[in-house]
Amino acid sequence: MTEREQELIRLAEEEVEKNIEVVESDPYRLRYHLIPPVGLLNDPNGFIQWNGTYHLFYQWMPFKTGHGAKFWGHYSSEDLVTWKHEPIALAPSEWFEKNGCYSGSAVEHDGKMVLFYTGNVKDADGNRETYQCMAVSEDGVTFDKKGPVVELPEGYTAHFRDPKVWKKDADWYMVVGAQSESLTGKVALLKSSDLKEWQHLGAIAGSGMNGLGDFGYMWECPDLFELDGVDVLVASPQGLEAEGMKYQNVYQAGYFVGELDYASATFDHGDFVELDRGFEFYAPQTTLDEKGRRLMVGWMGVPEQDEDKHPTIAHKWVHALTLPRELKWVDGKLLQVPVEELALMRKDQLVKKIDLQLSGDKIGLEIRESKAFEMSLSFKDDVASFEMDLSDTIQLIFDASERVFSLRRKSFVTGEWESRSCRLQELSELRAYVDTSSVEFFLNGGEEVFTARIFPDGHAAGMVTVSGDGTVGEMEVWKIEPE
Ligand code: FRU
User: Rounded distance, CA 451 to CA 277, Å?
Assistant: First the structure.
């Protein structure tokens, strides 16, 4: 470790030490989601199950609640439920990463954990350079930096970042989020036989390619994987115009389903579909775990979307990661299902109701001001409308005649109601994870998901009412108390 690296790590640790109390005393602090110990967290990075243990790194700015020269923070877990905060994995100490160890991924090779990340470099005039770098670990805790392994290929601006690496047969592949010289968003594909020498095969997707029209000026955080017989490309494009119910956030995160032809380096794909219909979701990353599950975690935030207005900033921290979700491809639909291990967090059952008739009168649930709970509802097929209100901050509304599902939220900036919606043929099931200042709603077995931050008055999210027209076949609520 260089002296500069030691110094940066020491300063970051001091910052954590100094602020532990102010962060922990925040009534909006999340109970079972991953948050930074202090400062700003953004993208999930390096998600991997390695020698049985899950490792989840994250973009971290320890010194302020804004963006800057990022570190890689590090959490590990045996069960995706209880997480341990590990020592800092990467600090932006060297010339090739001096303005940030930006996003990237992890693979296992020869028993070692190998990280790929973007070294972000800016000069005094703001000109950018980018290096895709490698770091290797034998113990999963300390990382030996190997420096840049990929220089910027021709045809792109220096907005070339976020390497995601995987193995296919005997070779390694990397997708990188990119911007072409004509300022359009792209995903570049590279290939290597040894993880050190990389060959650029070309752009496989992007604005103006594969039947897409104008589709943004930059694509961030790509991820490409096989799922139940199809190839899925996840990306976070920037520069899409809002269109009806779609693309309402400042930047988007979604996927294309298709087939990657490794020989010709072409990706034939369908339409872009947003992964999450809520307010805060961006830059997700997946991994294949030892059980063969494709797991995904996202950043519960969006760049430049009122980031500096989050009430938690008063307590010196901002943003969180989503819960881990298992991805499935079923009957032409991508489903996101909260991982089954989350059931380990259930404590007391607060509510159990069978055959609950909905009416125009709001029925209150006995959640006793709990801040952290899981809720599951299954509906009979007579549901014409459904509404759920949560602490005067969130409303869920389904109207079967319109076939639209909406999430309304009281803005934490203006206090006005704002909404996000999607088409939904029917409402058969709803699962909710409420955690103090966040909500994640999974509809119909994960067919649609809505994620949002909420900041209810009095800091409690536990006042819930349901109303509508139809029958809830079964409703259960569990208090969640992480260890
Ligand atoms: C996405 C992103 C990435 C970049 C990282 C920097 O949120 O902008 O493209 O690597 O965040 O923190």
Answer: 7
pLDDT in tens, 302-343: 999 999 999 999 999 999 999 999 999 999 999 999 999 999
Q: Cα(220) to centroid of ligand 1, in Å?
A: 7
Q: Which residues are catalytic?
A: 43
What stretch of H or E contains 441? strand 438-443
Ligand 1 mean position, distance from CA 404 (Å): 32
Q: Which residues pair with 240 in a beta bridge?
A: none
- For residue 303 and ligand 1, the question of a CB distance below 6 A is answered with yes
Average pLDDT over residues 184-206: 98
Q: Who wins on pLDDT, 193 or 456?
A: 193
**CB-ligand 1 contact for 162 (6 Å cutoff):** yes
Q: What's the 364 CA to ligand 1 centre distance in angstroms?
A: 42
Question: Distance between CA atoms of 315 and 28, rounded to whole angstroms?
Answer: 9
Among 399, 330, 386, 391, smallest CA distance to 358 is for 386
Asked whether 140 and 113 are in contact (CB, 8 A), the reply is yes
In Å, how far are 224, 291, 359 from 323, measured between CA atoms? 20, 18, 32
- Cβ atoms 252, 236 nearer than 8 A: yes
pLDDT in tens, 6-20: 999 999 999 999 999
**Closest ligand 1 atom, residue 103 Cα:** 10
Q: For strand 101-109 and strand 112-122, is the pairing parallel, antiparallel, or unpaired?
A: antiparallel
Q: What does DSSP say about strands 39-50 and 317-318: parallel, antiparallel, or unpaired?
A: parallel
Q: Rounded to whole angstroms, what are the CA distances from 204 to 120, 267, 479?
A: 23, 6, 46
Residues of the chain above pLDDT 70, percent: 99
Q: What is the pLDDT of residue 483?
A: 62
Q: How far is the CA of 471 from the centre of ligand 1 (A)?
A: 44
Q: What is the pLDDT of residues 243-300, one digit of tens each?
A: 999 999 999 999 999 999 999 999 999 999 999 999 999 999 999 999 999 999 999 9
270 within 8 A of 257, measured Cβ to Cβ: yes
Nearest-atom index, ligand 1, CA of 303: 7
At 335, list the tokens. 């489903």
CB distance 448 to ligand 1 below 6 Å: no
459, pLDDT greater than 80: no
Query: Cα-flanking dihedrals φ and ψ of residue 312, to 5°?
Result: -70, -15
Of the candidates 367, 223, 351, 244, the one whose C-alpha atom is nearest the C-alpha of residue 298 is 223
